[in-house]
Amino acid sequence: MVSGVNLSKVNNRHRPNLLFILTDQMRGMAMGCASDPNVQTPNLDRLAEEGTIFVRAYANAPVCTPSRATILTGKYPLTTKVVANDLPLPEKERTIGEILRDAGYRTGYIGKWHLDGVPRNKFTPPCPRRHGFEFWAAWNCAHDYFHGKVFRDKPEPVLLTGYEPAAQTDIALDFLRQHDDRPFALFISWGPPHDPYHQVPENFKRLYDPEKLELRPNFREPQGLPLPLSEEDRKVGLRGCIANYYAHITALDEQVGRLMRALDEMGIAENTIVVFTSDHGDMLGSQGMLKKQQPWEESINVPLIIRWKGQVPAGRVSEKLMSLVDLAPTLLSMMGLEVPPDMEGVDLKEYVLGGQGPEIDSVFLMDLVPADEAAMQGLKEWRGVRTKRYTYARFIDGRELLYDNDVDPFQLRNLASEPSAANVKAQLEAELQKWLAKTKDKFLPWRELILELGLASLWNERERELHPKNPQLVAN
User: Fold this and answer.
1) If DSSP codes are grouped into helix, strand and coil, which group holds residue 185?
2) What is the Cα–Cα distance from 472 to 453, expressed in whole angstroms?
3) Are 190 and 143 in contact (CB under 8 A)?
4) pLDDT exceeds 80 at position 68
5) Are β-strands 322-323 and 57-58 bridged in parallel, bridged antiparallel, or unpaired?
6) Is the pTM of this model over 0.85?
7) Percent of the chain having pLDDT more than 70?
């Protein structure tokens, strides 16, 4: 335990609270404050006005479980061995939840967890697998937004009524009101706007006419691919899915407003760090692709708004690079706690608070195991970097992507094979090599990686559970 366990109540009262709001599969440009012409997000826009929006925030591994492990540990997936969905976060990995609990915080986690392996409906009892979160109202993984469930401290599910994020927010409000002398750290993890897109209340659906949407210039109907969509989502087509995706975001925006009003009413908004982000984005037909695990902007760019009144500059739109691996060290530092030396993200506190602290030159990006929906779309393993200007990615089969995002923000022109871009590509490849060396990433084929990490049994268990008719097994 860190020395914070013995902090006096006086010291603890001066520590900031943390409210960490995590959505699932929400791309960073899908907010009014991020200049999306379609979506209505008045509460998020207000949150950005009162804090800083980081428009170049990225998911290092744009898929649920690896990304969530990265957020909590401040480490890359290779280090934690959480290299694919539904592989459990090892008990030995120390998370921000455990650090804050041991520093005297009242910790809580509400909503989607997705860090305890398979089956997805398993009960995570009070034990180290909760990684420091004392208050628990979570479900490992499910996307059924009108039949939500959570586990508390007993193995009997608690049924939620109505729209799942609203019910989860009710629980969050109860947590906030049951305060004591300790500061709190609450993580609330909503399932939307992750598909099924159609499972959203009708009053929000009515806000969006699919035919009036302004589609992104790189939108293309997927061709020759099995669509990883539910039957109901297929019925309305991709335009309908995008409209419902926006409806989910506006529905979540309403819940953000409820949480912000509660902080105001309780008189704790001034001393509460609010973070709003997502684990990855959603292609939604951009580049003719769907979902995540891909190196294009719609998949890797995530929303990131940080508000701490009087501390984080208000109304700032930051174009500095930031990634999900940097959140844990940055937040711990902002909260006056020591950053563990084994965290691999960068402490960006000084910059977040308006100073001239360290910056990062590039974000390391990856899909280590192209499983599930990525496999359905024929994607291979890839590694890449995102600098302020360029996106560069290399697939294991030799395919390369290179975009100049300053002149081509919708990534319509791949420069990888153009002679005029040879020097830039060489520089970006050198940057990628630095990251591979730093993280001890051999860029192995995914089956070899699973074996090298000693994950064959866990992998085969998840395959038999999730794909019983056609499991992609790895021989021990």
Assistant:
1) strand
2) 17
3) no
4) yes
5) parallel
6) yes
7) 97
Q: In 10 A of CB 213, how many CB atoms?
A: 17
CB 442 within 8 A of CB 83: no
The answer to whether the CB of 7 falls within 8 A of the CB of 104 is yes
Q: Maximum Cα–Cα distance for the chain, whole Å?
A: 64
In the chain, the amino acid numbered 318 is: S
Region for 366 from its dihedrals, namely left if φ exceeds 0, alpha if ψ lies in -120 to 50, beta otherwise: beta
Joined tokens for residue 30: 């899908």
Q: What is the spatial distance between Cα 169 and Cα 146, in angstroms, rounded to a whole number?
A: 14
Asked if 365 and 384 touch (Cβ cutoff 8 Å), the reply is yes
The Cα angle at residue 272 between residues 28 and 130, in degrees rounded to 5: 75
3-class SS of residue 7: coil
Q: What pLDDT is attached to residue 1? A: 34
pLDDT recorded at residue 8 = 33
pLDDT over threshold 70, residue 82: yes
Q: How confident is the model at residue 224 (pLDDT cuts 50, 70, 90)?
A: confident
**Would you name the residues annotated as active-site residues?**
64, 114
The set of residues, in sequence order, having a beta carbon less than 8 Å from that of 188 and lying 6+ positions away, is 19, 20, 21, 22, 110, 111, 168, 169, 172, 259
What is the C-alpha to C-alpha distance for residues 80 and 68, in angstroms, rounded to an integer? 11
How does DSSP classify residue 313? P
Query: Would you place residue 357 in the very low, low, confident or very high pLDDT band (cuts 50, 70, 90)?
Result: confident
